[in-house]
Amino acid sequence: MCGIAGFVGAGSEEDLRVMTRRLRHRGPDGEGxxxxxxxxxxxGHRRLSILDLAGGAQPMWDREQSVCVIxxxxxxxxxxxxxxxxxxxxxxxxxHSDTEVLIHGYKQWSTDLPLRLNGMFAFAVYDTVRAKLFxxxxxxxxxxxxxxxxxxxFAFASELTSLCEHPSVDAELDPDTxxxxxxxxxxxxxxxxxxxxxxxxxxxxxxxxxPSRQLGVRRYWRFALEPDDALARLxxxxxxxxxxxxxxxxxxxxxxxxxxxxxxxxxxxDSSAIVRLASDHLDAAQIKTFSIAFDDPxxxxxxxxxxxxxxxxxxxxxxxxxxxxxxxxxPDILGRMDEPLGDSSILPTYQVCRFARRHxxxxxGGDGGDELFAGYDPFRALSLAQSYQRLVxxxxxxxxxxxIGKLPPSDRNMSLDFKLKRxxxxxxxxxxxxxxxxxxxxxxxxIGELRGRPVDPExxxxxxxxxxxxxxxxxxxxxxxxxxVNFYLQDGILVKSDRASMLESLELRSPFLDSExxxxxxxxxxxLKLRGRETKYIxxxxxxxxxxxxxxxxxxxxxxxxxxxxxxxxxxxxxxTPLAGLRESWFEERWKRHREQREDWRxxxxxxxxxxxxxxx
Length: 617
What we know:
The chain is of the alpha+beta class. The protein is about 45% helix and about 15% strand.
């Protein structure tokens, strides 16, 4: 795992070194630079050594010095690709570097290379023969990549903080994207907090013609739900077996490492499945598992994790975290997070990553299981929401929402009043907006008040609506799956996991996002993922032979913190920065209502807080 940065155009080698230095936490084991002032191209790299410790330094060149690559990530099918390329006549210099596979893969397949890769990645290839710079990001967007073009200069980096060190970048907040941030709880690609700075979306590549500076972005892959009748005709037992075997292969691919490796274990289905399937390939004593315990039982999941660790006889490590002490981490974490995120579970995620990093350099986690197999509460709400909108007149809905709004706010994790208020807020709109409104920090009407004039939901949620309409004809469950995979996973969950792990130089791998498993999941009919109110139905059936029912069928608990209470007690941010286009008085009034415990504005205030800490570190 690493960090990359570079630019074509104005700037010096010292600018490159400053940009790259900002990525040290992503790659504490080494750095490398290439500068060619004659062609105005500069490439920088920070390395976290995982594979081929001796031979994987970057920037890496081919023998002919015609192709150079800087790379952040891991390619899990690099052995197969190497064999294929060697059979085509390619000669490798390294022993088992996955980075070198990118060089020869680009020479063989050009811009189709990303489609061949099973892994997580963001890379840049400098093609000296064609005078091109080719950038690509993995299918789900596990590894970040930002870029900007200003006048005659193109610059890119793994993090905004690094990119903003380039002298051509003006880090001016964009009022339009700030509104979208409060609407979604994250910045939907290609948006970022700044004007003229973009995020390369997942499954996209970018080609820059160096002499002309002409730039083209294309989508090379999209998660498209295409239910397969052949899979539907399989017996439930056969399909479950296929899911289990495919996930097991995905886990096995992610066990290769030349440095210590472990597992983040929450005790939930996804992380438990990964640890259990890893035990088919490793001795129990080799499996190091990590979890954290909290002193508040409403947020503590340590007992289920301990139960799985004891069942599988892993080398289990657990750390007790005082929630009040954890609160003290907020300024430091948010100041170093780079890309603001409206998900406060970044805090416990960071804590378990920090704990694991004391023992290992690589860890496997369960990201992706809920999105691919319909594991979230909103999936259970869909049929009820449809019935509610069909049967309840708008006037009665307004009355019900007003009455529920008077319920006193609770500080408990996923409390009933929170769920009811959030659900009814979504039902102010049609099904195409349920998911973004349910998951976001503020509703369109709230954002209208925040900016001082009405906001058009069609514009506010344009990215989600475009995806929804692209899936016209699919069932509501499949359209919801597409939202969670293409939006919430890419720009919410994976941003959280990447930043939390990389702040501590921990490489975090996600077997559920394996290309083969994702391709299988997208073809499984949704009725086998959501059966009545049973989420992850086929995944649970797949795991029944290897995990006990009390693990598979226990009630889901989110990985959270007592955010509502913390925000009432949190010290004010010193010298708060006005947010472009948003009324300061609106925030002041919500802080007052929240601190007096009259209303619950936890998500909006958390989003405000994350923006206030932007680049304060």
